[in-house]
Structure formats: C-alpha cells, structure tokens
Amino acid sequence: MKVEVVPHNRTWRGKFDDESKYVALTLGENVVAIHHIGSTAIPHIYAKPIIDLLIEVENIAKVDDRSLGMEELGYQVMGEFGIPGRRYFRKENETGTRTHHVHTFTAKSLEVERHLAFRDYMIAHPEDAQKYSELKRKLAKQYPNDIIGYMDGKDGFIKEMEKKALVWWTLNKSE
User: For this UniProt entry, which residues form the secretion signal (predicted)?
Assistant: First the structure.
C-alpha cells in the first residue's frame, strides 16, 4: 500500500457526514453515536486521505448481523482485526484506493474513550498536532511503499500523546 499524506482538506468533514448517514442506516437502532476520528478529523494537519468513523453501539455482537449490509455499502468485513471487541470495516473506491475505515466498539468502552481523547487532545493542543503532522510527513517520505514501517514509526509518538490525552480527557471530562 502506497503511503501518502496530504494537507488537511475541508471536504473531509462532509465526506464523514455523508458516509455516517449510510452506516447509521445500515447498522440500525444498535448505533448509539458516530464520531469522526483519525487525522482527517484534526484541522490543519497532514493526513492519509482516509475517513475514519468510530461507531459506538449498544451490542457489539449485533454488528455481525449487519455485515452483509456493510458489504452492500462497499465495505470489506475485517472482524476484530487485531483489537478484541472491535468490528472493523474498510472501503475502497473503484480504483482500489482506500477511502474509509469504520471502527465499531461497545458504547463508552475504553477503546472509544482512547480514540476520542486523542482526537480532542490534538484539536485542543495544535502544537502537538503539528509535531504529529511533521512526523507523518517525514515517515511517509521515509516509507513511501511500506505501511508497516510508517505505522511503526508513529507508534511511540502516538502512545506518548495518548497518555497525555487520557489524563487531559479525564481532567476535562469531570469539569
């Protein structure tokens, strides 16, 4: 998979809004909330142009009953894909370029909190968001055809920011 990061694009929010409506209809009444996550949700930073949706559901097992509907929307059903308790789906366009990821978790789970804390922390701390953006640009140049190398290169930074984000999130959530 080619690794490409591009400047923030204002159309990403609209693409999220459009796709979230289709996914909500497909997953049905089990959906509690849908969030825009990932770098496309953080203003002013470079990102891989893939829209990440985080879906909170009442019952994760019921998501499996809707897999066929997700396939009809063009998603590949990936199961937990390395994260216990998740249901993961990915979508490509007609040229084979990845366009969307759907991460589905039980509502209010630790995984949901972790993703939302990271996103909100980055939005509230633009200096850390810019450090992340620069790291992603550097890694995309270093690993243009190696998604594993790119992801591994981000791992330490993400874990460090995630720790800060969870502390920040906890303090701000209680206010």
Answer: none
Angle ∠(125,129,130) on CA atoms, nearest 5: 120
- At 175, the pLDDT band (50, 70, 90 cuts) reads low
Structural domain containing residue 121 = 11-173
Total structural domains within the chain: 1
Distances in whole angstroms, Cα of residue 171 to Cα of each of 24, 100, 122, 161, 164 = 31, 32, 15, 15, 11
- Short-list 94, 111, 102, CA closest to 70: 102
* pLDDT 10s digits, 35-77: 999 999 999 999 999 999 999 999 999 999 999 999 999 999 9
Q: Give 158: exposed, middle or buried? Use CB within 10 Å, 0-12, 13-18, 19+.
A: middle
Rounded to whole angstroms, how far apart are CA atoms 29 and 41? Answer: 25
